[in-house]
Amino acid sequence: MSGTSSSHAQLMWDEAVTGYDFGPGHPMDPVRLALTMRLVEAFELDRAVRVVSAPPAGESTLRLVHRPDYIAAVREASADPTSADTSYGLGTVDDPAFAGMHDAAALIAGQSVGAAEAVWRGEVPHAVNFAGGLHHAMPGAASGFCVYNDAALAIARLLELGAERVAYVDVDVHHGDGVQAAFWEDPRVLTISLHEHPQTLFPQTGWPTETGAPDAEGSAVNVALPAGTGDAGWLRAFHAVVPELLAAFRPQVLVTQHGADTHFEDPLAHLAVSLDAQRHVAAACHELAHRHADGRWVALGGGGYAVTDVVPRSWTHLVAIAADRPVDPASSVPDLWRSEVFRRTAQLGPLRMTDGREPEWRSFDESGYDPADRLDQAILATRKAVFPAHGLLP
């Protein structure tokens, strides 16, 4: 059931996005999307937002970011997965080709583009597509479970509609390399990525020295966090970099990517962040959109491979925050939803909407820089690399 048109937020959803399925045993199990939507419904958040489906991104939209020869290769691999051309990153271990791949990937891209259009046109202040955030796809190649880069396509569409400044904040555990690559030479787009250090994690990019092309100096921002960083460090880094840059850049729209794979239970990475800190950052992004972008906020999902325990709770909090109906972390998870988890995965779902943490962090500006602390070294490296380009002191 959809909410009324006076909703604070639009939730992009089409059950067919679960067709984005690389097959059994692949970490990116689409059950994480279905279970998230069922949890959103269990909390009746679908009544507090407008639930809308957008059409798949068409050829002209896809070409805003992707090369025509790559789109043709995706279509070909979709029709015959055995023909996948690995020179385009298709048919690999990370991105195995599957029947209908083009349609499923274009549908997810369409939801993010639709979210961006609704926000830019003033239909709603906030729009969420938790099926999106496929930030590794490159203009001419699939990469890291990502076929079409919906985040980059949403930003490109905003520029096409006349936006002059778009900020993108990516808190997935992996570097937002595809979005950075798409706008490397474009000073209209500020890309900020906080991620595990490239020395210890795919895609081995996202060094603080990656700051944009000469004509767009300071438009790419990378915070490379030491493996093992937990809530206090993650939040310290976020607050030491993101708010000041957004204040200086003055975006007209804020696009955020909320990969849940920073979590301590995630099997593919090495940060130690709790659900409670993820919820704090979602709320901070909401607040920053109101402070710096007239409330215009497009929020996307991303990675996250603890598919029953973490992803649905994290993104349900995201939807709730966008809807202005935040879920109390102490809330019990509805029994009906836990039954659904067991039915679909034979796992026991989590009991509460919290990990029981109360994240606290020390402000970088107030507590000062600790030269012996690897996290502070990472923060300072980023600030030194990009703050001067924005007229800020490192």
UniProtKB/TrEMBL annotation:
It comes from the Bacteria. Pfam families: Hist_deacetyl. This is Acetoin utilization protein AcuC. One of its GO terms (biological process) is epigenetic regulation of gene expression. Belongs to the histone deacetylase family. The keyword Magnesium does not apply. Residues 26-320 form the Histone deacetylase domain. Coiled coil: none annotated. GO terms for molecular function: histone deacetylase activity. Keywords: Acetoin catabolism. InterPro entries: AcuC, HDACs, His_deacetylse_dom, His_deacetylse_dom_sf, Ureohydrolase_dom_sf. The keyword Flavoprotein does not apply. Pathway: Ketone degradation; acetoin degradation. The lineage of its organism: Bacteria, Bacillati, Actinomycetota, Actinomycetes, Kitasatosporales. PANTHER family: HISTONE DEACETYLASE HDAC1, HISTONE DEACETYLASE HDAC1-RELATED. SUPFAM superfamilies: Arginase/deacetylase (SSF52768).
